Q: What sequence folds into this?
């Protein structure tokens, strides 16, 4: 990571913490801020963060890389806060699961030409500094959404940055990203939560589930602080995806009610065919 | 496994094949039948099965343990087929995901006093002999449903058998089993399939998903041959569970449509609380 000597990571949760660890491992001097003083202190104590910043983020001054890793509803405010001090920054990025609003915020903060939104498809249901780890992004797809598509130098820097962390960058527009992720990520999250809620009403616990049921309910353990803003920001697209899933569930239930074994089998065969089409990467 | 010297396993799929491997590893002489001649030949070639039986199952004669490991809609026929030859059997069991119909079939075949239905909560979306492996049941809960609850000697033999395979036996009635599993296993399976079907319509593949989405869709890869009969046998209970899940999904969608962030957060908090209540075993 010779292109950046100093970087700031704002937010040391699962993703931000893991970015900080990887940067430090690459010899980059890492400055950081987290609203939780104990997380920040732990990151300093563990030697990952060289310098803890104060809440006004004026310490960003002079740094070449800024990574915003806070919940998506807090990211815009952070961008506006760092903007006055970001003169030396060559790349400003984030790690949120929605991209349209943060790209708008970057443009609004006059950071557009140096802002490339990032969404690494890594992590799990755990959250916080304690869950962060080095190598989290190895082999993971990371979506890159340039605020200004013509800013090829920023996009190229972002691509190189994630590549150094072992991730596989894919560039697309913020709108396209949010539309796609409603299906590939936000929908599975909401279904997992819905299943957890249905099971909770029966009095059954996750310990009553086998390995399969545990897989399906794993995302229900995700942080509501992270996921409530994601769902709100991408509400329209997620509504559509949820309605589509409800329809598929109702079709299956209909086949069961009619005891239509042929229809039911056909649906399970189609579901398995979809699964097997990408089994090579399973 | 000193209590059984010879055992028959009928059906060498993921679960039956794994039972056969564990029995052989315990020094039990394993006889087996599978409707797929290549699976049966592979099991003999690999030294797991000592003797391949013919389709009339007359070779069951003289054996002390009979394990029926075929799809749940085929199990009743197998029980009727083996009944005339099962005089020496001290324990007859199965491994299906529904228990009421097989218990009825065992009583109908006059095997009730020696039949204890089993359902090991192990395995994954893969199927067939190639997916079977030794140690599959280690640490797994296995439900035991005696056909005749007063047959304590059969229940005790079944409990000891699974205990020797490393599983943790839990005895309950077949009706209670099927009611519970509709929620803990069959519902997650159907939701995973429904999600796969919804994603299939968008043209997105499983390769477009992150680790979370892949977890939620894993069960969609399960065998339709195994799961269609399970769903049909337990249709009424699964219908109820699916309707409950649809309601939870509709509630989440409603909160999104109203942009009611408080309601949405409350639901995600409740889902996470349910998850965290058993995190110790995650």
A:
């Amino acid at each position: 990571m010779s292109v950046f000597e100093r970087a700031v990571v704002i937010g040391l949760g699962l993703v931000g913490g893991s970015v900080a660890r990887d940067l430090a491992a690459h010899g980059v001097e890492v400055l950081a801020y987290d609203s939780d003083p104990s997380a920040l202190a732990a990151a300093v104590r563990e030697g990952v963060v060289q310098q803890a910043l104060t809440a006004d983020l004026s310490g960003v001054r002079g740094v070449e890389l800024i990574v915003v890793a806070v919940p998506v509803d807090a990211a815009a405010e952070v961008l506006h806060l760092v903007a006055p001090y970001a003169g030396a920054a060559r790349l400003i990025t984030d790690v949120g699961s929605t991209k349209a609003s943060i790209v708008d915020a970057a443009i609004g903060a006059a950071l557009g030409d140096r802002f490339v939104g990032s969404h690494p498809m890594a992590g799990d249901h755990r959250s916080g500094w304690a869950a962060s780890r080095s190598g989290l992004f190895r082999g993971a797809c990371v979506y890159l959404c340039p605020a200004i598509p013509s800013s090829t130098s920023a996009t190229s820097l972002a691509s190189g940055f994630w590549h150094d962390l072992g991730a596989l960058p894919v560039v697309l527009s913020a709108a396209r990203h949010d539309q796609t992720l409603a299906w590939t990520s936000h929908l599975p999250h909401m279904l997992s939560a819905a299943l957890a809620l249905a099971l909770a009403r029966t009095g059954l616990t996750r310990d009553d589930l086998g390995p399969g049921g545990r897989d399906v309910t794993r995302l229900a353990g995700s942080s509501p602080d992270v996921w409530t803003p994601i769902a709100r920001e991408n509400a329209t697209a997620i509504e559509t995806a949820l309605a589509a899933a409800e329809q598929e569930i109702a079709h299956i239930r209909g086949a069961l009610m009619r005891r239509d074994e042929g229809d039911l089998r056909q649906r399970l065969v189609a579901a398995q065919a979809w699964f097997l089409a990408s089994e090579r990467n399973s």
Notes: The mean pLDDT of chain B is 95.
